[in-house]
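Much of our argument rests on the idea that a fold can be written as discrete symbols. Part of our work consisted of pairing the sequence of a single chain with a tokenised description of its backbone. No coordinates are needed to read the tokens, only the vocabulary itself. The record that follows shows the chain in one-letter code together with its fold in token form.
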Amino acid sequence: MLLTFLAVFLLVPQVARAQDITLTGELTRADHETYRAVPVTVPAGVERITLALSYDKADHTVVDLGLWDPTRFRGWSGGARDRVTVATTDATPGYLAGPLPAGTWQVMLGVPNIRAGTHSRYRVQLWFDRAAGRAATVQAEGAPLRSGRAWYRGDLHLHDANSDGSCATRATAAAAVPARVPCPLFRTVLAAAAAGLDFVAVTDHNTVAHFSALRELQPWVAPLLLIPGVELTTFHGHANIFAPTRFVDFRLAGREGVAALQRDAHTAGALFSLNHPGLPSGERCMGCGWTWPDTDWRQVDAIEVINGAVTTGPMTGLTRWRERLDAGDRVTAIAGSDSHDPDGVTGPSRVGRPTTVIEANELSTRAILDGIRSGRAFVDVDGTTERLLDLTATAGGVQAAMGGSLPLCGSVHVSTHVIGGMGATVRLLGDRGEISATKISDADATLMTTLGTGAATKWLAALVERDGAPLLIGNAIYLTPCARL
């Protein structure tokens, strides 16, 4: 009774914050081979709960962990884990995803062993995702897989058995006409690891069914980062959303318009990126091109400029991306293989070809998404492991890099850094067309260009081409009027 009173007493002042609850208590020999329920009040509107257990482990004390919601069992991990998460979309292995009803939950402590005379203090911490708060998501992700600012390479568009990914069965892979089945998620993850990628986003169509499997695979496949995503497949366009904290109903576009769908995706904490917007739409590819008339372009974070093997011509997303830059929108160019078969090691839609290369402070979901938002990214069309493209510009003593803003105060001096492009051509582009074209003569080259007056007024970006086909596609530096008086 004393411990129950203590738990409730400590909880009451914390309910208003609802994102940082700490419950403490003490276990003794009287708790040996018993279960101790620690009640916690979960408020309405919670979309994820992450909890952590710590306790004094002296004298061979062991405490197991489990969780019940107000009406049912939600999971048991015994002594295997001290941190778990449950959400509407996914859960730690051993725990069940599903609705998170408001009311009194039970954090269940099992005590298989505590010796006579031992006093073990325990602490249960809980974090909630609710409204705009994402404390539980942050705690669930844990430490970054790699630390330090670097260029990280990944594939942002992959499918598996949870939507329409398929591959040959293990038993018939060598047959002349192998039998094909929905391809298990782990096959796609293994293909990404074999390609030497740092991160992937698995984006099955209109479902979050793969989220729990990604959470299960993450510790095993590290340091490859697995980012949960969804390809929102609507009748007038497809869009990837990266790292939503809950299900986003793709039908919303038909009921309320695509702008409402965009808002809901952002409310769920996700980035919104148009997929293959230049593809035609029709019976051969239903809704593949982006044709929504009420698109809120302020809510488009990225555009897939290269999809799989479609690297040239009007069916790429390059034209749509440049149109948005010309219109004054700040949108990041990315790419994805759109792989539906992890065994496709050559040719179209090979996992990791093309690659989106993102400069980030660390290898974590949050940092990768921040890198996309900031525009510190370029596309490596061939999916190599060594090519680099970066762009900086200086005017009036101010310097800006890809994704940054540069006031047009005086002459603009541009530096383009390319690794792995010898023999190719760097084209400097802007809202008024091509500015310059320079042949690359070194494996590691830095090319300097001074812009003529009026050469670009809204944006400039670098493109590396060979024989008319893009090798590297850089993001824009955004030009703004000079504010000097």
